[in-house]
Amino acid sequence: MQPGLLLALLLPKAAGVPVTGSPECPCVDVESGGYGRGCAAHDINNSAYPQCMSDAPPGWCGDMWCYVNRSNCLVTNEVSISPTAPPAYWSYTTCGYRDLFSLNNITDSIRGQTLRVLFIGNTGGWKGNYCTDNGQICVNQRGYGPVQRILDSMTRSSGFNLHQLNEAPEAVREHMARVNPTGSQFDLCTWATGMGFVDICGCSMVMLPRRTDASPFLTLWTEPVVLVGPLRGNQGLGGDFGAMLGKAFRPLSPGLWGLAVVVALSMSFLITMFEKTEGGQFEDVEHGESFGSGLFMAFFSLVTFEVQFAPQTVGGRIVSLGLAFILILLVSGYTASLTSFLVVDNRLSSTVSDLNGAIRLGLKICAHRSDSVQLLLNGVKEENVVIQQSRSVVLPSVSEGACDLAVVRQEDLEASQAQNGGSFCQLTRIGDPVTTSFSAKKSGGRAALSARDPGWLPAWRFALSLTAAIRETVG
Ligand SMILES: *[C@@H]1O[C@H](CO)[C@@H](O)[C@H](O)[C@H]1NC(C)=O
Ligand SMILES: *[C@@H]1O[C@H](CO)[C@@H](O)[C@H](O)[C@H]1NC(C)=O
Ligand SMILES: *[C@@H]1O[C@H](CO)[C@@H](O)[C@H](O)[C@H]1NC(C)=O
Prior knowledge:
Layout: H1 3-10, E1 66-68, E2 78-80, E3 88-91, H2 100-110, E4 114-119, H3 146-158, E5 161-165, H4 170-179, H5 185-194, E6 200-202, H6 209-212, E7 218-221, E8 225-230, H7 241-249, H8 254-275, H9 287-304, H10 314-347, H11 355-361, E9 365-368, H12 369-377, E10 385-388, H13 394-399, E11 405-409, H14 410-419, E12 427-430, E13 437-443, E14 446-452, E15 462-465, H15 467-472
Parallel strand pairs: 4-5, 4-6, 9-10, 9-11
Antiparallel strand pairs: 1-3, 2-3, 6-15, 7-15, 8-11, 8-12, 13-14
The structure holds 2-acetamido-2-deoxy-beta-D-glucopyranose (NAG) (3 copies).
């Protein structure tokens, strides 16, 4: 019997994935006494990993992997280096598993270590790292805010310590001066991390290509940008007086208002007729005057939604009851639809429902310079992108009419609406986030570029490099 066949019979078979691995990266035989040969959970009960023999083994212990030939492998694989044997390459991916072993190993490798952190100050939102005095920027020092809280919780859960650096090392600043003299503190910080002078860049930042390119080891979280535009047809209370008066009549159609006037007038006429008879309200009143009063009371009843007559005759009272009933119908209909009008007014969304709508209509969109490329990538014409130099002027530029819509960070939208006395509350978020982010990971000597669905990722952005830790990783 062929050894491969025997192996296939003995080893548990992962659903769909052959024991020989995926054709893109077939398993190979290595002289290792069966360990790592063919897709199997080789580390379960493996005494080389005491944690796999514990009562609560890490997830990777039961995951399948095999040794592979890197020259013949197109998927993620890692290498084990030993002083006594040639490098051995292995892959979880080819067996249909993500490599949680390396991840675990990385987390383990920083436990108890002291990592160098460079803090960059943030303004313009509440998710960053800022100093106490009037939101002033912290220059190269620990401030407070979400960046600090996330670092604190990470240091606790992963058991590492922080050593704060006070500035980027000279070599990084020289690199910056050479490559991008006008670059920002954020560029400097990510480069310092990518170059291995710093382990953690502590700040909230927008990930730009020149930053993601800094290192294949950067772990990134990014907050998507959202499209924002004015609510349609909502004048709020700021509309002109005429418009406000006009609104009062909108709940009922002009026809219905006309009908109400005609009915009220004719019923008032009837009441006046009855009340002109003996014992009635207008018995002793002159003809002209009584009809004048009748007319006045008819309109007065209409605007107050209440019968203003004081009828004395049976006929007058019966018609008054009828009038009162019609007024009740009118007032309930009016208030009910007035309410729905006000609610609908505020719920009406913008003139477009997503970015594609904006592109179709050729609307002008304001964006911070770092977000403008997102718009171009998403197909917005260059002449319709209005680039702003500061995040804080993007939303005002929509209010001031410089553009029809804007793209901003969700954080900026929320902060502006909360902090400016409601002055941006007429703006609303439109459709899905517009970000298209790309993440690149170097694997097996190849760079794999994959488009990632932005979705709703964690609200803060944070770059953490584990360069040193990964370099140590051997499997
Ligand atoms: C691991 O070892 C324990 C005790 O020796 C045994 O009960 C268990 O079945 C083993 N698990 C596997 C998957 O071999
Ligand atoms: C790995 O694959 C390449 C190309 O297929 C081959 O030339 C090489 O001999 C293989 N190495 C081993 C150790 O099998
Ligand atoms: C990572 O895995 C290798 C190979 O098993 C091991 O020698 C090394 O100690 C691990 N690192 C940590 C920090 O556990």
